[in-house]
Design goal:
- α2 packs across α7, α4 runs antiparallel to α5 and α6 runs antiparallel to α7.
- The protein has two domains: 356 residues, Outer membrane efflux proteins (OEP) (Up-down Bundle), CATH 1.20.1600.10; 42 residues, no CATH class.
- By secondary structure, the chain is an alpha+beta fold.
- The protein contains eleven helices and eight strands.
- The two termini are 37 Å apart.
């Protein structure tokens, strides 16, 4: 491995370890990972959104429950018409013969009695207006209605609202998981950036020592150390100083990104404690896939949506059945007119009854609604299969990533030990002028590269585990 390749790889590791954007800030308060999660769960604004969604779902449930209660409404209506309400009687009527005979018998004159009887036997014309209501009327009523049978529509709507609450709860849990995932992501990125900054700082100090040693050997007339070696060490030190600046900048970015994920103000000051090492997972892939299918909020929401589609089919089928309801009313009429329809018997009273409405033919509207609901259920069931397969693939990908990171951690730890020993041997040999300057520089870079790979492997393990936890919807078991 040449010097140029090692420097390039080291630079890429510092610059591409994470993708974040923020502004630098100071450090004061020491925070653990648990502290960061706690602060985020207290301050993050997305929690208010999920809380509002849950409150909306609960309100919709209350609306559905209202169908199980009687509806009681009071109504008062005062009106003035342009004139009194009347009823016109026009036509003719005939008296029964017995009445005509009885009236004729009252006359002592037989001839007059006969004329009276003949006259009463003729149809009598009728033309008169009867006043029914006064022009001023005020009506007060209290109405009660209660559905007795709705063709299972009422039950279907209630079931949908209950599952709507469960969907909102799963959405709230998903929000919590997203917050924890983001906090962990930026917390591990910040810790990785701190480690890389320390590594760059330690590497710079070692190169400074090597530069001083090379300068002393060159000035004391060493036969193996030439001016080109001295310039090589100066160049390497300068490049490492540049890399340290980039690492410091990356650390500041990670620090501010973590603060944003926690919901902190841009000018808040805090620092991080050293994290515990991530432990390998103990569960097998089959267990992880089953856990994801049982606890992942997206899968649970889709399962509930499939159940809601069944309730929607029941709701649509209610159109095939009659609607039966109970109704009662108490009324009172206030008007200056005390005859006609507003007489004493009609001025106040009550009614009670049962009604039914049955759509015998609606132009196949109900059939269309049922078919639409069934198609919606088939669509959701297909989406559920696709989501299960996709989730299993994502879990497998993270599982393999974690296994790879575990292997890299083990190998890179050994590589760090070998590279450190190799660097120490080269430095001692260089002091005795037994090796060339470029060999010492290369040993320094190899050790830095090995340590950087080890830190990167640990970071990959942490990111893989938090991604797996988010997919599963709960914490995975570790040693």
């Amino acid at each position: 491995m040449t010097l140029a390749i090692n420097l390039l790889v080291f630079t890429l590791m510092l610059c591409n370890a994470f993708d974040i954007n923020a502004q630098p800030a100071g450090e004061q308060e020491k925070l653990t990972l648990e502290d960061c999660i706690r602060i985020a769960m207290e301050k993050h604004q997305s929690l208010a959104v999920s809380d509002a969604s849950l409150a909306m779902a609960e309100a919709q449930y209350q609306q559905a429950m209202s169908a199980y209660w009687p509806q009681l409404a009071a109504q008062v209506q005062a009106s003035r018409a342009d004139q009194d309400r009347s009823y016109s009687l026009q036509g003719q009527f005939s008296l029964p013969p017995t009445i005509a005979g009885a009236m004729a018998s009252l006359s002592a004159n037989p001839q007059a009695a006969q004329m009276i009887q003949q006259g009463l036997a003729q149809p009598i014309p009728l033309n008169m207006d009867v006043k029914l209501l006064d022009r001023d009327v005020m009506t007060s009523s209290l109405n009660l209605t209660y559905p007795l049978f709705t063709g299972m529509k009422r039950e279907a709507l209630l079931a949908q609202s209950e599952k709507g609450i469960q969907i909102a709860q799963e959405g709230q849990r998903k929000t919590n998981l997203e917050i924890v995932r983001d906090v962990k992501k930026y917390y591990y990125a910040a810790q990785f950036a701190i480690q890389m900054e320390r590594l760059a700082s330690d590497t710079l100090e070692r190169f400074k020592v090597l530069e001083d040693l090379t300068e002393r050997l060159f000035q004391h007339g060493s036969l193996k150390v030439k001016k080109t070696d001295y310039l090589r060490t100066k160049t390497t030190t300068a490049i490492t100083r540049t890399l340290l600046s980039e690492a410091t900048y990356a650390r500041d970015l990670a620090h501010e990104a973590l603060g944003n994920a926690m919901g902190q103000e841009w000018n808040s000051r805090y620092s991080l404690t050293d994290p515990d090492e991530a432990m390998p997972i103990t569960q097998e892939l089959q267990q992880l896939v089953e856990s994801a299918q049982a606890f992942n909020p997206d899968i649970q929401q889709l399962k509930l949506a499939v159940q809601i589609s069944d309730d929607q089919i029941t709701e649509a089928r209610s159109g095939y059945y009659p609607m039966i309801g109970f109704q009662a009313e108490v009324h009172d009429i206030q008007t200056p007119y005390h005859s006609g329809l507003s007489n004493t018997a009609n001025r106040d009273g009550w009614t009670i009854g049962v009604g039914m409405q049955w759509n015998l033919f609606d132009g196949f509207l109900t059939t269309g609604k049922v078919n639409q609901a069934k198609a919606q259920r088939r669509k959701l069931e297909s989406q559920q299969i696709l989501l299960d397969q996709g989730m299993a693939l994502q879990v497998k990908q993270q599982f393999l990533s974690i296994k790879s990171a575990n292997a890299q951690i083990k190998d890179s730890k050994e590589a760090v030990a070998y590279a450190s020993e190799n660097r120490q041997l080269h430095v001692r040999a260089y002091q005795e002028e037994l090796v060339e300057t470029k060999d010492v520089i290369e040993s320094q870079i190899v050790e830095t590269f090995a340590q950087g790979v080890h830190y990167r492997s640990r970071y990959a393990l942490e990111i893989g585990q938090l991604s797996l936890e988010y997919l599963i919807g709960q914490t995975v078991q570790t040693h």
